[in-house]
User: Which sequence fits this backbone?
């Protein structure tokens, strides 16, 4: 292609179309570079400078007004000069979502103003509109050589202040920084071009109505994403995957299209990409947090394994909690991966899996969790109790009852409390055994009292006779502890609703003691329940 400063074999109209395409491509590339590269990366400035340079021959010493529509970019006063390329449509989408339909550029346009304008376009549309629109942002940025929408050209010209001299961007005076820098620049340029190609394919996909062509575009998206993934360039895949997730939910898609979109998303989200998203999420990157959550919900089976791998090596509590929350989002699809880790030799890994399974609360995990209740680590067994209660309280009764005989006191206490909370009638006899087991000095008083609380909550009358016998017996050894136990018995009887306990309770209520007071309150409560 001939340079705009050299004679061209093209006609004037054709040459202007080439200049417009060059300018639009350069603007699109510069806009992408500002979102693609981190702050301070030299490619950001180079891309903006290239766009500035490509604008000059299109301006040719005159102001120009670019009109944006869904289908094309047209030059005002020259309706024949328009571009309907994918690049033009992509730029138009960025402009129109920010309610910008006309872009006026005067020949005195400065590099600073162009850079500031493109920076404004990198802000999400809702944020720009909330701040008052593109025009407000441009005014705040001090842009005087570019106008938005119905700008007054005379005012723009008259208000134009002398800017600092535009830096020489021709490339003739740039310092040579060695072969390595040149190669790096070429590599960056290639990656940026690949990212633009991916964006263009996705933009075309959103407009496509032909199903065969739609599926063909999806194959192209897979290939374009693979090029970036092989180079470990993940940042451009974040907006691409975000759009693909939204595309999957479009109601007009056929079942085949939707399934192929899902397949495409899975292909774009391999293990390194999942790690990248998690790293960014741990740095509070809002876009990546939302995307990773959506991916877990849609393709949970694919996302579960890389997330579990990271969870197994995570040290910080915040990191473990974050990963666990994403694994919970995988739902039923992630359960096979989680269940496979219940056999891991590391007890803390098993405990994490048990916790997540409890949060998912799927009955499909019930049997495996019941088996895990025999784990040698008591911290795992305690976590199993919590998860079983979340999944199926009554389906877990037999497992919880078995844990009453656990070797660890904390596990026993938690099992007893849980059985009381779900009012498990199957637990009454094992709990009575704890209460009635011979213990003259009541060394297990705390455990017996907890069992009594559980029996009171369960409210099964089969326990009444045994409790009344204990209430009526004399505790010669450790009388204070026996009185404390009997007060707990009276409280339990008062909750159970068995009227047959009222006579003995009233008889013992005559005592002027804390036990007598407790028996009186229990009898009163039973009478109220009987009415």
Assistant:
């Amino acid at each position: 292609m001939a340079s705009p400063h050299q004679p061209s074999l093209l006609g004037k109209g054709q040459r202007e179309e080439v200049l417009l395409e060059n300018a639009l491509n350069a603007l699109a590339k510069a806009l992408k570079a500002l979102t693609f590269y981190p702050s301070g990366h030299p490619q950001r400035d180079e891309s903006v400078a290239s766009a500035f340079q490509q604008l000059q021959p299109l301006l040719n010493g005159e102001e120009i007004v670019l009109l944006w529509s869904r289908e094309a970019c047209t030059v005002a006063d020259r309706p024949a000069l328009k571009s309907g390329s994918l690049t033009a449509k992509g730029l138009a989408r960025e402009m129109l979502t920010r309610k910008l339909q006309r872009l006026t550029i005067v020949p005195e346009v400065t590099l600073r103003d162009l850079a500031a304008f493109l920076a404004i376009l990198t802000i999400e549309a809702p944020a720009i509109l909330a701040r008052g629109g593109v025009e407000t942002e441009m005014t705040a940025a001090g842009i005087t050589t570019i106008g938005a929408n119905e700008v007054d050209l005379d005012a723009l010209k008259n208000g134009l202040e002398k800017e600092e001299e535009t830096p020489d961007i021709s490339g003739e005076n740039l310092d040579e920084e060695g072969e390595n820098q040149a190669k790096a620049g070429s590599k960056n340029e290639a990656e940026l071009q690949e990212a633009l190609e991916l964006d263009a394919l996705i933009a075309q996909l959103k407009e496509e109505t032909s199903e065969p062509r739609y599926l063909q575009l999806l194959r192209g998206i897979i290939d374009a994403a693979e090029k970036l993934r092989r180079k470990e360039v993940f940042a451009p895949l974040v907006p691409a995957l975000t759009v693909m997730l939204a595309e999957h939910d479009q109601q007009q898609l056929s079942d085949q299209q939707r399934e192929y979109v899902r397949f495409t998303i899975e292909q774009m989200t391999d293990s390194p990409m999942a790690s990248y998203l998690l790293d960014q999420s741990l740095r509070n990157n809002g876009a990546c947090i939302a995307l990773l959550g959506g991916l877990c919900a849609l393709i949970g089976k694919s996302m579960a394994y890389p997330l579990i791998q990271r969870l197994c090596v995570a040290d910080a509590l915040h990191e473990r909690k974050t990963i666990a929350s994403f694994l919970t989002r995988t739902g039923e699809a992630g359960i096979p991966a989680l269940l496979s880790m219940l056999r891991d030799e590391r007890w803390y890994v098993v405990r994490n899996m048990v916790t997540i399974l409890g949060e998912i609360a799927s009955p499909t995990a019930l049997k495996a969790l019941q088996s895990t209740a025999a784990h040698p680590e008591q911290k795992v067994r305690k976590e199993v109790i919590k998860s079983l209660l979340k999944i199926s309280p009554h389906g877990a009764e037999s497992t919880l009852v078995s844990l009453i005989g656990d070797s660890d006191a904390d596990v026993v206490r938690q099992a007893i409390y849980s059985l009381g909370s779900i009012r498990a009638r199957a637990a009454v006899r094992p709990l009575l055994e704890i209460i009635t087991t011979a213990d003259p000095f009541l060394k297990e008083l705390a455990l017996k009292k907890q069992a009594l609380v559980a029996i009171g909550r369960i409210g099964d009358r089969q326990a009444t006779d045994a409790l009344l016998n204990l209430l009526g017996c004399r505790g010669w050894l450790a009388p204070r502890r026996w009185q404390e136990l009997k007060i707990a018995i009276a409280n339990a009887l008062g909750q159970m609703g068995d009227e047959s306990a009222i006579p003995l309770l009233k008889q013992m209520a005559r005592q002027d003691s804390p036990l007598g007071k407790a028996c009186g309150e229990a009898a009163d409560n039973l009478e109220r329940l009987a009415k």
